[in-house]
Amino acid sequence: MKIVDVTAQPFTYRSQIARDSEGHSHPVPEYDATECLVEISTDEGISGYCFGGHPVGAIRQVVKPMLVGEDPFYREKLWQKVKQAQRGSREVLSDRLIGVVDQALWDLAGRALGQPVYKLLGGARDKVPAYASTMCGDEVAGGLNTPEAYGEFAAQCRAEGYTAFKLHTWMPPIPWAPDPKRDVAACRAVRERVGDEMALMLDCFHHYSREEALYIGKELEKLDYHWFEEPMDEHNVSSYVWLTEQLSIPVLGPETAEGQMFTRAEWIVRGASDMSRGGVGDVGGITPLMKTAHLCESFGVRMEVHGGGPGNLHALCAMGIPGEYYERGLLHPFLDYEQRTPWLNSIVDPMDEAGCVHVSQQPGLGWDINFDFIRANAVTAPPG
Ligand code: MG
């Protein structure tokens, strides 16, 4: 089998989610947003798919020439090839982009072999407990504007079946944010509202000082929180070593530090966190995510899989050491999570009443793609 084409098709859809000036998602009035379908097609008529793939010029002009003519089952060779091309062109070939390409290759393999990806990876389970992951705090009545609002939203998520809840608290550009005391107040309000019925986690402002991070961590210990995520700049590894030594609550990281599985290895050796993590968007696909999982297993370190989507879900279902949870989000009281992917006929991460997300048993990653929707809303991408 040979790859004959790699395409990126942008299309529009109505969205109620937009990013603020700091990159945080919030509910907004409905507008036309853009998504992109990447397709890797072969001479045997079988294709693999993944969504993402921005900028499309990188797919068409950089990735396509590297893949056409290659055997799509040589995923390791192709991942190494694209990864090495990142040197000197990382602004074009981001880890997120090469992750899209890698996931499309896994989807292709699954479709060609008639098996879901998690079974090709080495199946370990077919469902994973999910945690409700909130959007960042806001100043909107009925939203996530007070500690009590987080408490109410946690109770609502518990009623929907979630057994775990992660707060993203208030961050810039909110003028008074960040505020360590208010972060702790929100964490306390959630614990008081849901009692010990839920595992609770915090992902707060990411540029706190050592002392601020230590204060929050100590308070989270009193509230019996499950993990403490990225309170400081992850490039400052020594600060994470310092923090992890002083806290009993598990410190979780890295998320945003570049360097794929290599960086995770260095964090483990340095003792910069208690639990490691990675997601297909952080480390560049399922291929390096499984390397990260095996690295963590070898060191006896727990691992959290960061972010949602089928690539992360299939990896979670193929990990011998259980990934902590599947991240379902980002959630907000104003939004219906189930309605945000109109380009799919069914959602990729259905959750049962016990709060577990089930992996698709369809071949590949289990995308149930609405090709008619994508054709009807296709837009011409600008060249380049
Ligand atoms: Mg985070």
Describe the structure.
By secondary structure, this protein is an alpha/beta fold. The chain has helices at about 55-65, 75-85, 95-115, 115-120, 145-160, 180-195, 210-220, 235-245, 260-270, 280-285, 285-300, 310-315, 370-375, and strands at about 5-20, 25-40, 45-50, 125-135, 165-170, 200-205, 225-230, 250, 275-280, 305, 325-330, 355-360. The chain folds into two domains: about 5-115 and about 370-375, Enolase-like, domain 1; about 120-360, Enolase-like C-terminal domain (TIM Barrel, Alpha-Beta Barrel). Strands 4, 5, 6, 7, 8, 11 and 12 form a seven-stranded mixed beta sheet that branches. A three-stranded antiparallel beta sheet has the order 1-2-3. Strands 9-10 form a two-stranded parallel ribbon. Strand 5 (about 165-170), helix 6 and strand 6 (about 200-205) form a beta-alpha-beta unit. The two termini are about 30 Å apart. The model has no long low-confidence stretch (mean pLDDT about 95). Bound molecules: magnesium ion.
- Cα separation of the termini: 29 Å
Rg calc: 21 Å
CATH architecture of the largest domain: Alpha-Beta Barrel
- The helix content, as a percent range, equals 25-40%
Number of helices: 13
Considering the protein shown, what is the CATH homologous superfamily of the largest domain? Answer: Enolase-like C-terminal domain
The ordered H/E elements are EEEHHHHEHEHEHEHEHEHHEHEEH
Small molecules in complex: magnesium ion
What does the overall shape look like?
globular
Strand content: 15-25%
Indicate how many domains the architecture comprises: 2
- Total beta strand runs: 12
Query: What is the CATH topology descriptor of the largest domain?
Result: TIM Barrel
| Biggest β-sheet strands, sense, barrel | 7 strands, mixed
Give the class from helix and strand content and strand pairing: alpha/beta
Mean pLDDT: 96
Give start-end ranges of low-pLDDT stretches.
none
CATH class of the largest domain: Alpha Beta
